[in-house]
Design brief:
Layout: H1 3-10, E1 34-40, H2 49-58, E2 68-76, E3 79-87, H3 96-100, E4 106-108, E5 114-116, H4 126-130, E6 137-139, E7 144-146, H5 152-156, H6 162-166, E8 172-177, H7 179-184, E9 205-207, E10 217-218, H8 231-258, E11 280-281, E12 286-287, H9 293-317, H10 337-362, H11 367-389, H12 402-431, H13 457-484, H14 489-499, H15 503-525, H16 536-563
Parallel strand pairs: 1-9
Antiparallel strand pairs: 1-8, 2-3, 2-10, 4-5, 6-7, 11-12
Length: 578
């Protein structure tokens, strides 16, 4: 059977092949003109010759496809139709890959082609998230991303791109386009199985069949697939939020002491105090023995924030395909939230470490130490905001919500106070508190004996942590109730994952969060410092248990954040990767 016989079987009768311009007629371009792909859907027979030609021309490894052929279908049996869609890079007028890249690895050539420079890539993969068509592909062997460049060397030599040259039905082509005119009306870039062209102003022009049904969609439109959990990013986001929360709380305590809002020595003078430690307010800062529980607790809080922040930044490097070039990630501060996150969180870790070192030498209330603490707290909060903003990606609708910002800040609010309380308790256990007092109890504290935080101070921090837990669980509830009501493909599939195979993880997130919240409630409402009583050891175990439950809840929640998201994409093939 000849190839013409095959064409007759697939599309009986004469096929009206579109008159698509070839590359030799494109050059030289008029001033301001761009080059773009064209695709005639009715002419495509799904032979995948374009995929093979692209792979051979660019020597792409198995699993890295710069062009792929997907399928769309519509109708009900027996009145059904299926069409193929060949998709390479659309060389958008507003390319999300270029805008978000932290290393400026993308450039847009004068002819409109979006080119990726592998030498500048660190392999963060952020462009694979931001592109709604999922065009950039990560090459694990090289540790970098790669993508279609419209066969730029062939164009310059006056030849068609390899995919266009190999297409037996001339379904693929290239042509000139005036970007200003196209920007005004780019409806020709919309086709079934593709994201809205307005997201990036795609330039590929689709010629659709005149009788195309309205219900046509990708053959994989209902296939829910868990996403990669990205464990280095789980650690980065979670630990950085813990670190920022801990530094903010420690800074607030040191400032309150410095300003006289709280008292030191003897009984507390306000709603929050460091009592029973033999400390007093000195002219330069907090005075008293360096080994006293109050001072040890504040300095310990600073070191905890610095250490956790440093671990977070180290963990993030393991997400990169080229860890040794991580410094390049700060090159695009003007446009990329990822660059801003890296710069701000790196500065935060440095400021937190500097504050801890200075506080160890001269005391946590010294002006220099306080200055570093305040600066670190402000930079850290800005870093958390940048961290959340980089996930506001239209191509991933479940992330593209103010809820993402709120949930990241909620983690810092839930975990920071608990970490500081545990550190203060540890200072009390090591240094010893007069009369067997504790962090949470009163008299000198809440129920009697000396304490590190007196007259409700510990309970204030527990209350803040409880608020953070409630806010975090509220964000999960908002997500699940929201996706359950949406008809958009991406949110519908996220709902299917959360209410389906991931429902046990959702239950674990809620159960551990409620258990931690119950522990906070016990501390806040019970006459003693929790179920284990007002002793120093009992207090440490109570706070440690609450911290463990809250931490586990946040860890499960962050895992769900990454694996339940469904991205926009071009239609895939029925037999292709699912």
């Amino acid at each position: 059977m000849s190839s013409l016989d095959v064409l007759d079987l697939v599309a009986p009768g004469p096929v009206d092949l579109p008159d698509l311009a070839g590359a030799p007629d494109l050059l030289p371009l008029d001033a301001g003109d761009h080059v773009r792909f064209t695709f005639a859907m009715e002419s495509c027979i799904g032979c995948h010759a374009c995929e093979v030609a692209c792979a051979e021309e660019n020597s792409t490894p198995v699993g890295v496809a710069w062009r792929r052929v997907g399928e769309v279908e519509g109708g009900s049996f027996p009145e059904t139709r299926r069409h193929s869609v060949s998709m390479g890079c659309n060389h958008c007028l507003e390319p999300a890959c270029l805008i978000g890249c932290p290393t400026n690895a993308y450039i847009k050539a004068d002819n409109g082609v979006v080119i990726h420079q592998q030498s500048e890539c660190v392999g963060c993969g952020y462009c694979t998230w931001t592109c709604p068509y999922e065009v950039p592909k990560f090459d694990p062997a090289k540790g970098v991303v790669s993508k279609c460049n419209l066969c730029q060397p062939r164009l310059e030599a006056g030849q068609d791109p390899a995919c266009v040259n190999a297409c037996p039905t001339r379904a693929l082509g290239v042509e000139r386009v005036d970007p200003d005119v196209w920007r005004g009306d780019h409806s020709g870039a919309d086709a079934p199985g593709l994201p809205p062209s307005a997201l990036t102003v795609s330039t590929t022009r689709f010629v659709l069949p005149a009788d195309l049904r309205d219900d046509v969609s990708g053959v994989d439109a209902d296939h829910a697939r868990p996403a990669d959990p990205h464990w280095p990013l789980i650690l980065l986001t979670l630990l950085s939020q813990v670190a920022v929360g801990a530094l903010c709380v420690t800074t607030a305590l040191a400032l309150a002491i410095r300003l006289g809002v709280v008292g030191l020595g003897g009984a507390g003078r306000g709603g929050l105090g460091l009592a029973g430690t033999g400390l007093g307010l000195g002219g330069a800062g907090i005075s008293g023995s360096a080994g006293s529980p109050g001072t040890a607790g504040l300095v310990g809080g600073l070191w905890a924030a610095a250490a956790v922040g440093a671990v977070a930044m180290v963990a993030s490097v393991f997400h990169l395909g080229r860890p040794g070039r991580a410094w390049k990630a700060m090159r695009n501060l003007r446009r990329s939230w990822l660059s801003r996150e890296v710069a701000l969180l790196s500065a935060f870790a440095g400021l937190a470490g500097g504050a801890a070192l200075v506080a160890t030498v001269v005391g946590p209330g010294a002006p220099l130490s306080l200055g570093l603490e305040v600066a670190g707290s402000l930079v850290g909060v800005a870093g958390l905001y940048a961290s959340a903003r980089l996930y506001r990606i239209p191509a991933r609708p479940a992330w593209d919500s103010p809820r993402t910002v709120v949930s990241f800040l909620a983690t810092a609010l839930a975990m920071g106070p608990l970490v500081v309380l545990v550190v203060l308790t540890g200072g009390g256990l090591v240094g010893g508190l007069p009369g067997g007092g504790s962090v949470l109890t009163a008299g000198g504290g809440l129920t009697g004996g000396g304490s590190v935080l007196t007259a409700g101070g510990g309970r204030v921090l527990v209350g803040l942590a409880a608020g953070g837990l409630v806010l975090g669980l509220g964000c999960l509830g908002h997500l699940m109730s929201g996706v359950a009501r949406q008809s958009a493909r991406e949110l519908r599939l996220t709902s299917r994952l959360l209410f389906g195979p991931m429902r046990f993880l959702v239950a674990a997130r809620v159960a551990t969060g409620l258990a931690g919240l119950a522990g906070c409630g016990w501390v806040l409402l019970a006459p003693t410092a929790g179920p284990l009583g007002p002793s120093r050891l009992g207090e440490a175990l109570t706070l440690g248990g609450i911290l463990a439950l809250a931490g586990l809840s946040e860890l499960v929640g962050r895992y769900l954040f990454y694996v339940s998201v469904t991205s926009m994409t071009a239609a895939r093939g029925w037999w292709g990767p699912r």
